[in-house]
Amino acid sequence: MHADEVDLDEALVRRMVAVRFPQWAGLPVERVDSAGTSNAMFRLGAELVVRIPRIPGAAEDIGREYTWLRRLAPELPVAVPVPVALGEPLDGCPWEWSVLRWLDGANPAAGDVPQPGLLAADLAAFVTALHRADPAGAPASYRSEPLAARDAAVRRAIAALAGVVDAAAATGLWEAVLGAPEHPGPPVWIHADLQPGNLLVDELGRLSAVIDFGCAGLGDPAVDLLPAWYVLPASARDAFRTAVGADDAAWERGRGWALSVALAELDYYRVSNPRMARTARHVLGELLADHGGEA
User: Looking at the predicted structure, is the pLDDT value of residue 135 above 60?
Assistant: First the structure.
């Protein structure tokens, strides 16, 4: 998926575990078919999973997650991947990596969930709890800039996707959301990437875990409105919005964040990651349908 991606496989992970954590050396290693794009996951036995950066840009996330997820986990209503060990770099893996507890569940299908009202309530409860977490000393989120700072990148993506998406409709929506007032208060803890690949649901479709906190940190709470378009069908959006208490300005910024992220993902992953591209197309379709256009 990336030009600077390192080559990771089960043999390397077995060697890494044997060298750094010999107590787990006898456990089987199996690559996880994950939607993640910045890190690779390898299941280690029945109860653990190894998480390794694929690219240099994800390397710092490992140590940050190791520090902050331990503090956030007790304040959140669903499970999160709290690391149990931090591995040092070694030949074949130039960065820190982590071992976490395995979390059961499946990724929800974008816009096609069995109990959308209940999932909307679950997502709202998670978002509300995270936004209330103590921000003291926390780092900035990967998506902590004002929405207007993404203007040039969004317009480049729209131009690159001409003929793939309705460029006029996407531009019209983008220009509309840019008029929304900025977040008036201090930044809060946000996950910043609440899309299907980072959520786990149980057999009833209820939220059981939220994973991949690589983008997490302090930012505008509107960024965490992403699941309104990335996960939930239109019928559940109002319930989600009401439960998180998003006013008109926050909702507009949320639409802008969803649009900017989906455009960037479709442009970047259109060929290299069909799963991400399908999700991005779905999100753009939902956003543009709301705005009177077509993806």
Answer: yes
